[in-house]
Write a structure and sequence with these properties.
This protein is of the alpha+beta class. It has a single domain (3-102), classed as Beta Polymerase, domain 2 (2-Layer Sandwich). The chain is built from 4 helices and 5 strands. A hairpin with a 3-residue loop joins β4 (75-79) and β5 (83-89). α1 crosses α2 (45-61). The longest helix is centred in the middle third of the chain and has 17 residues, at 45-61. The chain is globular and about 50 Å long. The termini are far apart.
């Protein structure tokens, strides 16, 4: 199964639980660690956890693996091997601005 299938499963799981402002970022060519990243906002710490739990449940129901889950009250990271899902409270998402970070050009600048 390709990473695009994993993205579709995860996004569907997030939409079903009313995740807010779902963004999918293609990271191919920017990192070898994963192929795509999903960023979504939860409306409360309970909602953030529920979103993560639903992603894990749906991915496992399709016989795909979950490498791990790291969580804190305002941010949960779900590692689906080739897809990373960041589920955050709005203020956490605004503070870290992951979408802007990954939009940085990969072009190198000559310094000499």
């Amino acid at each position: 199964m390709k990473h695009t299938d994993t993205v579709k499963i995860a996004v569907n799981a997030l939409e079903n639980m009313k995740g807010v402002n779902i963004a999918v970022i293609d990271t191919q060519g920017k990192t070898d660690a994963f192929d795509a990243m999903i960023v979504v906002t939860g409306t409360s710490d309970r909602h953030v956890k529920s979103l993560a739990d639903n992603v894990v449940k749906e991915v496992k129901s399709k016989s795909l693996g979950v490498l791990g889950v790291e969580q804190d009250r305002s941010w949960v990271l779900v590692d689906l091997y080739d897809v990373i899902v960041h589920i955050m409270l709005e203020e956490t998402r605004e503070f870290y601005s992951l979408e802007k970070l990954w939009e940085i050009s990969t072009d190198r600048i000559q310094v000499s």
